[in-house]
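SEQUENCE AND FOLD
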Amino acid sequence: MPRKSAYDWSAVDWSLPTKEIAKRIGCSAGLVSTARSKHAPETSLKPVTHSRHCVICGAAFVCSPSSNNSTCSPACRSERTRRQALGGRPWGFNAKARLATKGQTDNLTLGTPAAWLSPIAGPFITNQEAKIWQVIAPDGIPRTIRNMRRTLINELGETEGIRVERILTRMAFVMRHGGDAWTTRCGWTLTAAPKYPEQDTGCNAIRGVVRED
């Protein structure tokens, strides 16, 4: 035999809010909410819903306004996850061409080649960001070199020039961090950490004052 409830739900005024009813009869709001759904379901507040369209199949589905769901079913959700793992929709050739054309203004089309030919911005010894190096070459002669990579490529060739430049760059890294074990290697001696020149109005000028790297 079912146990009789301690509350007379038939005498409750279900038009009142749940918390107000719980306060009046001395019970929890959860108990009142359960009793409302059983004894007066027509007074229960219906949840607010919102209609959306699935991003995979386009079908309409209902969800709460605060929901982050963008798919209508587990199958569409799995498909969306699969596409995201693949990096989304791949770019087609025509789409890439349109985007490239959109970004190529007249100034940009002319500016890039001009920058490569500029003694200030191009791959030259006079580049404004080229560092000044103090080294002793394998022949024992102290040298001050600006733009070490370009100078070594011009003198030793591309392969050997890049190899030596990488060695000197590693030596400079160790020196800047307080070490001196690699200040001499493969015949080359690094006497000071490379520095940037103070910029002058002329692209070929190097002032005596330098700033730290």
Observations:
- The beta strands are 50-53, 60-63, 132-136, 142-146, 184-185, 188-197, 210-211.
- The chain is about 40% helix and 15% strand.
- The chain has three domains: 9-43, 50-85, 119-211.
- Helices lie at 18-25, 29-39, 74-85, 93-103, 106-117, 148-156, 158-176.
